[in-house]
Amino acid sequence: xxxxxxxxxxxxxxxxxxxxxxxxxxxxxxxxxxxxxxxxxxxxxxxxxxxxxxxxxxxxxxxxxxxxxxxxxxxxxxxxxxxxxxxxxxxxxxxxxxxxxxxxxxxxxxxxxxxxxxxxxxxxxxxxxxxxxxxxxxxxxxxxxxxxxxxxxxxxxxxxxxxxxxxxxxxxxxxxxxxxxxxxxxxxxxxxxxxxxxxxxxxxxxxxxxxxxxxxxxxxxxxxxxxxxxxxxxxxxxxxxxxxxxxxxxxxxxxxxxxxxxxxxxxxxxxxxxxxxxxxxxxxxxxxxxxxxxxxxxxxxxxxxxxxxxxxxxxxxxxxxxxxxxxxxxxxxxxxxxxxxxxxxxxxxxxxxxxxxxxxxxxxxxxxxxxxxxx
Length: 375
Prior knowledge:
Elements: H1 2-22, H2 24-29, H3 31-44, H4 52-71, H5 76-80, H6 83-107, H7 115-127, H8 130-140, H9 144-165, H10 169-173, H11 191-198, H12 201-230, H13 235-250, H14 253-256, H15 261-277, H16 285-288, H17 290-314, H18 318-329, H19 335-341, H20 347-373
Helix pairs in contact: 1-3, 1-15, 3-15, 4-12, 4-13, 4-15, 6-7, 6-17, 6-18, 6-20, 7-8, 7-20, 8-20, 9-17, 12-13, 13-20, 18-20
């Protein structure tokens, strides 16, 4: 069953890509949404029995491979011109999360004795990632049931926000935010370039193999370095090393122009979307509790609204705001799918960078808010 599950998770994105080229409904929503939706469906079909650990393993393997494959074609000097607006948007997102968690926490303080701990955990996850939420929860000695309920609520609420990001978010925020200047498009395998690629099948296949081997080597070196220096596989350190080594490799023209590397990274992201979708188990909704679910949803909605409002005040472009919102609320793993949905490959580096920055500061910000709110 585990082998069959892996084959489904790895193989379905090929059907989604094929459908996006031949079926108008699939092309309209995009392969990212299709893969994520099918993943949720598979995870909630009664009797199917998808194993959570298998889905986790597939998603954890797909993301480290996708990052270097996407970054090999990066033009770093061009990204450096985006740094100011990206960092400003990231800072505004962090402030929004801290303010929102504090406001919602104080509003419901009489409903739970752990409200201030929950606020700190949500600041950790919405400025960094799940690892930061775990760290804050352990540091504050949160009760096990609270930890489980908050994690479940986070998955459900963020699934809804992710669906918004990869569907209509860009069109909505463009109504009050400026457009991104000169975006680098996301190749969908059409046009003259695709025709040239299809005429060079061997060259493209060779480029994919070489880029995959290089990406695997970078992942291996990063994991080995983390184990050697830190005594274990620390996700933030590994992702930071992978990103850094991939960017260093991108300075080599022969690496930057490897044919098919971006397409391969794109496919790995679709595999990730299917795998993560299977983890969003709707049957657990009844176990989250209305209070915890409302707490989490209130923080997310208020945080996103405040971030967008501040971005409008500072006139930050729509794509940058959406990618930094993704980086803080979801972390680096979701940057690729959202950048793909926005059809702007130029966002990948800035999104990954701010996502890793969130990993670095999330625990500190979460603990700071919790200690400030402590009765």
